[in-house]
Structure formats: C-alpha cells, structure tokens
C-alpha cells in the first residue's frame, strides 16, 4: 500500500531527469553528436567547390549556405531523437510515466538542442570566417542560429515522433519537416544577409524569437500526441 | 438537424446519400465550367495590359483557391476525426489530399504558363505566391507520404491528422515569411490589379463556383471509394454487393 502512494517527483524533476539521461547517453556516444557537425562543415565545404571560390560570391552566399547546412545537419540528428528509446522500450516508460508527457518531451528536446543545435552555433563562426563574414555579422548569425535551432529542435521533434518506428523514417522525416522549417531558414538567413549589408535586420530576429516561443508552447503537445499515436 | 448530421457520419448512410448527391454537384458544376470557359475564352474582352494571356486566370484562380480549400478541409476533418473519433472524417481527409495536391499542381502549372509571356520566365523565384503554392505542394506530398508509410489505417489517420494540423498553423507563417523575403529581394513582380471589368469578374465567378461544385463531386466520389475500402469487412458492404442491384 505504501508503495502506491509513494510521492511522485515534481514536474521539473521529471524534465531534468529526462534531459540528464539523454545528455549522458550523448556523452557515451560522442559520434552521434559529432557526425552532424562534420556533415555541417562538409556541406559548407562543398559549396565553394561547386560554385567557385571568388570572394564576392562567398560573401554574398555565405549566410544562406551556412543556414541551409545547419538546417540539413539538424535534420540528420533528428532521426535518432526517439529511435533508440523506441528500440529499447524506454519510450514506453515515458508514455506510462505519471509525469505529463509534453514536459518530458521538452526535456528530451532540450537535450537534443544542447547536443545538436548548440554545437552548430559554436562551430558556425569558424565556417563564417572562411566565408569572409565580418565579426559584427558573425554575432548576428550566431544569434539567429541559436533561436533558429531551438525552433528546429521543437518542430523536428513532432516529425521525429510521427515517424518513429517506420521503416523509411529518415527520408520521410525530411519530407515532412523541410516545408515546415522553411520559414525559420528564410527568417534566419535573410536577417544575416541584411546585417551583412548594414541593413535593418531586427525584423528577422524578432520573428525568429516569436517562432521559438510559439513552438516552445505548442510543439511539445503535438509531439506528445504524435508519440501516443505512434505507440498505440 | 443534429440527428441528420449524426446519421451522415455513419458510413452506410453516407454511402447512400452521397450516391444521390454526387451527380447533383457534378452536372451543374460541369455546366457552369462550360459556360464560364465559353465566356472567358470568347466573350470577355481582351485585357488592355496583358492581351489574351490573362484568360488563363479562369483556370488558375479557381485551382489556386481550391488548393487552399482542400487543405483546410483535410486539416479540419482530420482534427474532427482526432477529437470526436469520427471515422468518416478521416476518410474525408484521406480523400481530400490527392485532389488538393492535383489542384496545387494545376495552379502552379497555369501560373508558370502565364508567367512565360508576362514575366519572360517559366518560373519566378521572387514571387511570393508561387513560393507559397510550391511549399503547399510539398506539404501535400509529405502528408500523403506519411499516410502511405504507415500500414495501420487507424494509426495513419491519426498521425496524418496531427501533421495536417501542425501544417495549418505553419501555412500562415510560411505565407508571411515568404512575403517578407520577397519584399527584400525585389519589387512586386505581379501586376498591380486595377479594377476588373464586370464581365471578366462575372465569368471568373462562374468558373469558381463551377470548379467548387466539381471539386465537391470529386471529393464525394473519392470518399465513397475510401469508405468502401475501409468498410470492406463489414456486413453492410457485403450485403450491398450481394444484393440484386449490386450496390448503387
């Protein structure tokens, strides 16, 4: 009897425990964190090779290329968001847990952002320098990438939850998420371009911030619903 | 009123009603389209700016409008199915997606054909409406891909309903972000619309009504096959097929 009335830990404790577990898992498997970063750097390398190394072209296309590469790298890491949990059954534990599922989803997404989004933000300046981006613009780019990757992690978690356990998961996930993620890239890349031309770029930053807040308040519910559907 | 509505949600009842309703939408729809086409191609005067090329709007505008309406129908019926667990609503969503994608494709094609003489290019990346429509097409593709990837129908229904609802929130954001984006890169490529001639407007209106009726009839037909497929193991379907009429 005492067993069943045992006190349930608070909501934040559940969130922290989920995030901590995922961070620990990422620490044990550094390849999962590093591979998307290498991919990110690789796509940025491909572009000058394909279009030519002229300085003005690189300056002109730098923000766009880095943003596209960041979007693709995030997609690459999203596939594994729920996959290992689905395979080893710990996803079922999340679903039957007395904690509210959207909060646990925030915990998982937070861990994903810390291991996939934030590293991109920190690697991006190196690539930006090779694209001859001035330091003032690099700051703007890092800000847009920070806000953008938060939204991408949250939005992507919906797609990852919908496709978890499906055979053709990866390609399908890209097909689902890319059209939805397009506004984030439009806002981010163009804000950086505007900053590079000494233009007013605050519209993009504010809109990205609004997008991040909106997705933080809405996406976890959609992800939780999608997880329940995928695991019926 | 409500009793009638609830009855409609029952598959056999819907199957019977829709058989009667479908031709009543298709025939007036086709008549209106025929009349509108004749008006649009032969009667309505030439546009002083665009010449005869503007006449493609009689196909373009209705299909662009239906591409959005089909998405609305798909998402709302998906939501209804998710919330009230009405099976028929999911069948409506499944039936609406390919029609919506087809109209989106038609809108893109006619827009591109119109753009060739007007803008001198088949495809104008800077036009926000073309971009929004293209992203809408990708959303349809994603929706249909998700549906076909999940074998279990109930699961596919629910998962795709969640996707459609997420998409509908995003469609608005896509629209505004693309507007902002194109305002940065170039001035409006689209002609400023002056006041349209009354005859032109009337013919367009006829076409829109005609297309909508035809769309309704196509949707009903698709829902009917969808319902029949989903209910293939039930008694009413077997009885209907074995009955002397062989099912209407």
Please explain how this structure is put together.
The complex is a heterodimer of chains A (232) and B (248). Chain A has 232 residues and is mostly helical. Helix content of chain A is 83%, strand content 0%. Chain A starts with 10 loop residues before the first helix and ends with a helix. The model of chain A has no long low-confidence stretch (mean pLDDT 89). With 248 residues, chain B is mostly helical. In chain B, helix 3 packs antiparallel against helix 4, helix 3 packs parallel to helix 7 and helix 5 runs antiparallel to helix 6. Chain B starts with a helix and ends in a 6-residue tail after the last helix. At the A-B interface, helix 7, helix 8 and helix 9 of A face helix 5 and helix 6 of B.
Summarize the structure.
The complex is a heterodimer of chains A (232) and B (248). By secondary structure, chain A is an all-alpha fold. Chain A is 83% helix and 0% strand.
């Amino acid at each position: 009897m005492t067993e069943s009335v045992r006190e349930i830990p608070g909501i934040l404790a559940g969130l922290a425990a989920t995030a901590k577990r995922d961070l620990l898992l990422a620490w044990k498997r550094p390849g999962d964190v590093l591979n998307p970063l290498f991919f990110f750097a690789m796509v940025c390398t491909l572009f000058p090779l394909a279009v030519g190394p002229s300085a003005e072209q690189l300056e002109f296309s730098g923000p766009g290329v880095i943003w596209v590469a960041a979007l693709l790298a995030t997609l690459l890491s999203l596939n594994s968001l729920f996959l290992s949990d689905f395979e080893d059954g710990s996803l079922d534990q999340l679903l039957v847990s007395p904690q509210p599922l959207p909060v646990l989803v925030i915990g998982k997404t937070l861990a994903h952002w810390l291991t996939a989004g934030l590293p991109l933000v920190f690697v991006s300046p190196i690539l930006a320098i090779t694209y001859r981006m001035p330091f003032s613009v690099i700051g703007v780019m890092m800000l847009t990438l920070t806000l953008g990757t938060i939204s991408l992690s949250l939005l992507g978690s919906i797609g990852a939850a919908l496709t978890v356990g499906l055979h053709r998961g990866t390609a399908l996930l890209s097909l689902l998420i890319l059209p939805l993620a397009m506004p984030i890239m439009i806002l981010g890349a163009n804000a950086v371009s505007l900053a590079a031309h000494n233009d007013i770029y605050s519209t993009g930053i504010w809109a990205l911030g609004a997008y991040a807040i909106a997705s933080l308040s809405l996406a976890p519910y959609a992800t939780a619903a999608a997880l329940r559907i995928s695991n019926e | 009123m409500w009793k009638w509505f609830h009855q409609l949600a029952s598959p056999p009842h819907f199957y019977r009603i829709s058989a009667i309703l479908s031709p009543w939408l298709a025939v007036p729809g086709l008549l209106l389209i025929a009349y509108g086409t004749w008006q649009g191609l032969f009667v309505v005067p030439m546009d002083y700016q665009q010449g005869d090329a503007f006449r493609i709007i009689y196909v373009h505008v209705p299909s662009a409008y239906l591409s959005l309406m089909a998405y609305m129908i798909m998402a709302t019926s998906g939501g209804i199915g998710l919330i009230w667990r009405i099976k028929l609503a999911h069948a409506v969503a499944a039936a609406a997606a390919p029609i919506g994608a087809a109209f989106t494709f038609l809108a893109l094609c006619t827009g591109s054909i119109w753009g060739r003489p007007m803008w001198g290019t088949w495809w104008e990346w800077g036009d926000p409406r073309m971009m929004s429509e293209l992203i809408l097409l990708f959303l349809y593709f994603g929706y249909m891909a998700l549906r076909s990837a999940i074998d279990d129908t109930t699961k596919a229904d629910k998962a795709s309903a969640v996707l459609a609802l997420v998409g509908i929130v995003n469609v608005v954001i896509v629209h505004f972000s693309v507007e902002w984006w194109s305002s940065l890169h170039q001035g409006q490529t689209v002609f400023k619309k002056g006041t349209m001639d009354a005859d032109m407007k009337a013919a367009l209106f006829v076409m829109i009504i005609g297309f909508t009726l035809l769309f309704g009839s196509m949707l009903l037909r698709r829902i009917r096959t969808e319902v029949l497929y989903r209910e293939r193991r039930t008694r009413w379907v077997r009885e209907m097929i074995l009955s002397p009429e062989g099912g209407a």
